[in-house]
Amino acid sequence: MKKKITVNYIFNLLYQILVIILPLITTPYVSRILGPDGIGTYSYTTSIVTYFILFGCIGLNLYGQREIAYYQNDQEKRSTAFFEILLLKMCTMTISIIIFIMTIQIMNQYKILFYIQIIDLIANMLDITYFYQGIEDFKKIVVRNVLVKILGIICIFAFVKEKNDLPLYAFIYSFSLLLGNLSMWITIHKYVCKVPLRSLQIKKHIKPTLILFFPQIAISIYTVLDRFMIGLITNNTAQIGYYEQAQKIVKLALTVVTSLSTVMLPRIANLYVQKDQEKIIQYTENSLIYTFLIAFPIMFGLIGISCNLIPWFLGSEFLESAQILIITSPIVVFIGISNILGFQYLIPTQRQKIYTISTIVGSCINLVLNWIFIPIFLSTGAAFASVIAELGVVVVQMCSIYKEINMISVIKKSKNYIFSSFIMFILIFALSFILEPTMIMTLILILIGILIYFGLLFLVKDKLIFETLHQFREKLK
Asked: Average pLDDT for residues 99-113, to the nearest whole number?
């Protein structure tokens, strides 16, 4: 079981990094070609399209993953659940697409981009990644998407040559997403059997998926609405561009931290069906410790290298992104915690009410602070609002389950990671002002940071590090 979790974590980590890092390979190029205004415009239209995707999916991807996980070992029930969820999703996404097309007609700006991004809606309607996540087959997700993502990158470098190529950039991105999702259908027949159409009960899924949908709406307020509000309040697409590019870097870091909760959700859901509460708690606390092991050095590392990274990575036009990156870096730790408590613990154990309340609190904090901060601090204000909102989510979740999850014990066991990360930060932050802002120097800073962090953990003989090394040696034998 441990081996399967480890393998799935590695494959899911590779997939999540793939989804974010491949566009980031193009970021230095695209940033210089499209500029802050082009990036900001695309981010603005995408933020609107994301809401139509959100309302079209109504939480079915997360719900579907959990439901498929419940019936991992029963092909008939698994197949029935798959087709019921698929039909419901197609109905809701079709309605969303129709409303989106009607909305485009009254838009005064960016109509071409909006028409192109209809492909995004179709791609999400056909997305069945949740099924493979539910049966814990993360390998297929990675393999099926690698070639498609790489093809998209090649097309961007080959065809996007000037600022006027923004619609072409949007098309390449959207079509790559569609192609990747279509590829997941190739092997689906191996895992599902034929189910009589009359036996399908779509209605029974509406209420439980809506329960998961409401917190997703709340989450979207402080993950998508910030871009929309920056554009609405400042009327400056460049400000959206600064914010968007800093967030891309943070998202890349988050993939490493949050991949574990995605892998563990179906595992915890399966344990919940078996009523093994002791093992659920054990997995959750261990996951939190592991999250701290990687989240704290990433957070302090981002702060330490930001001023050295941004000038060469994004270009001189995006220098404002460095400050935003520094401010938003703590999100890596906060989202790491909330993902474990929310996605790994609360949702699989059907504690959606607490999860929903925490996200609503976070969205309210974010919405209010955005209205206060953005007019004064522009995109930097949105960064402050996002960090405080994520902290609010964590506080609510921790207060709600403190009797079950011993957070004090988890923090005590993680003190080495916090201390070592802080020492690492002081040294690389000082060096960042001495070294030239080039790719080589940034890589040197990262390497120095890694050596300092793990070197300190070896000095204090950290238990988790030595256990991991022992397991690695045993596998080599």
From this structure: 87
Whole-number Å distance between alpha carbons of 400 and 352: 12
Per-residue pLDDT of 363-401, as tens digits, reads 889 889 999 999 998 889 999 999 999 999 999 998 888
CA distance linking residue 334 with residue 355, whole number of Å: 15
Residue 257 predicted with pLDDT over 80: no
When pLDDT is cut at 50, 70 and 90, the band that residue 79 belongs to is confident
Mean pLDDT value across the chain:
82
Which pair of tokens denotes residue 292?
């701290």
Q: How far apart are CA 145 and CA 181, in angstroms?
A: 8
pTM > 0.90: yes or no: no
Tell me if 179 is assigned to some domain. Answer: yes
Is residue 436 domain-resident?
no
Contacting residues for 459 by C-beta, under 8 A, at least 6 apart: none
Phi, psi angles (nearest 5°) of residue 3 = -65, -45
Distance CA(1)–CA(280), nearest Å, equals: 14
What is the extent of the structural domain holding 105?
2-413
In a domain, 296, yes or no: yes
Distance (Å, whole) CA 15 – CA 22: 11
Inter-residue contact 59 to 212 (CB < 8 Å)? yes
| Mean pLDDT value of segment 91-110 | 89
Residue with the two structure tokens 């870091």: 253
CA distance 16 to 66: 19
Specify the DSSP class assigned to residue 349: T
Instruction: Tell me the pLDDT tens digit for each residue of 260-293.
Output: 555 555 555 555 556 666 777 777 787 888 888 8
Buried b (16+ CB within 10 A) or exposed e, 380-417: bbbbbbbbbbbbbbbbbbeebbeeebebeebeebbebb
Give the whole-angstrom CA distance, residue 101 versus residue 119. 12
Alpha carbon distance 86, 212 (integer Å)? 17
Q: Are 420 and 292 in contact (CB under 8 A)?
A: no
d(C-alpha 39, C-alpha 32), whole Å: 10
pLDDT tens-digit series, residues 439-472 = 888 889 999 999 999 999 888 887 777 776 766 6
Where does 319-351 have alpha helices with state H? 320-328, 331-339
CB 68 within 8 A of CB 134: yes
Q: Is residue 7 part of a domain?
A: yes
* Residue 365 φ/ψ, nearest 5 degrees: -60, -45
Say how many domains are in the chain: 1
